[in-house]
Amino acid sequence: MDELSIFNRLESNVRSYCRSFPVVFKKAQGAILEDEKGRKYIDFLAGAGALNYGHNNPLLKKELLKYIESDGITHGLDMATGAKRDFMETFEKLVLKPRKMKYKLQFTGPTGTNAVEAALKIARKAMGRQTIVAFTNGFHGVTLGSVAATGNSLFRDGCGIAPQGTVFMPYDGYLGDNVDTIQYLDKVLTDGSSGLDHPAAVIVETIQGEGGTNVGGVEWLRSLEEVCRKHDILLIVDDIQVGCGRTGTFFSFEEAGISPDIITLSKSLSGYGIPMSMVMMKPELDQWKPAEHNGTFRGNNMAFVTARVALEHYWKDASFSQEVKRKGRIVRSRLSKLVRMDDSDIISARGRGLMQALDCQSGELAKKITSTAFENGLVLETSGSNDQVVKCLMPLTITDEQLNQGLDILEQCVMESLSSISGEISNENEVEIGVVA
Q: Which residues contact 351 (CB under 8 A, 6 or more apart)?
């Protein structure tokens, strides 16, 4: 019997990752996935960024099992629990105080889009305005509020209703390296005839993950904050995929030295792949009435446990951050080597920390690379408006040996795919010449 038959027969057509990786996975540890047949794969996907500390991290698993065995609270709505208290105290001690940050914490529904929905609502409520400015190629979720701030037409077309309340502006580099898109934003905000209603907030990813690993420059982010302050607009940073250490610092915006009014976190916040989302807002913005924004699963106590342990172990000092940056330099060096090896000048590299990517310019080429990689034991995905970007999103805890082994596979697959593409082009040219003759 086909091992995938039940999925093909009963599961909705909306499934996606299983189409790219058509095996049944059985177990995982660290940066290694294993299927039912015992074949192992190096994971350069990490749950789309939800597994920064790897699969079944033993430090987190130990405390989670202890909590479950002690009959700790599993589900408690938003009631006060020991697990929540311990997480909040640890977050304040290891994240907020060292960075001199003052924020209120709101625990929303379990996924990233829940955090974005809450952030957009509180911004509109606090400012008394409706319009949100988002950016080209941005991705913030697929529920109605967050998809309105998402640029990709695939997700917007799936709504069944026109997304509302958002105006899009060009992201850093969208109009070319010589165009200052923040200057453009400032101009339309200043001009009363631009047609842009005074926004409540701007929402931005410092690195656009799903949009193609587009990196917002440090100066661009600083200028964005300045424009928001100038025009009395809130700045929301969506740190759901690129936060929790992905870029080398806990928050992705730390290098820019900006102070967002609202921050959304999810994915690797729990540290163990357990659903957990949180909104951080400056205290004066906490204008909710009790239960005004709620949800049944807005306090995952098992996630509080693993999130606390992750903070205590990995963020007690700067050593983990330095390790992520060191590994990021290894990946960037290897990808840059690949770019130099490409005689056709098709591919280019970009990214920051352990969020690195190859822009292949062609979705066909990117798909060929990732599918060949999977056949050779490496799991990684594509992103970008045309799926033209091969994205490396490995666990931050990956060993150097596993990292280099995965990069070896990627290098082999890139060169094979480029050679194949070149061969196809040559054959097409030969056919054309033959027709002319």
A: 207, 213, 215, 328, 331, 332, 335, 357, 392
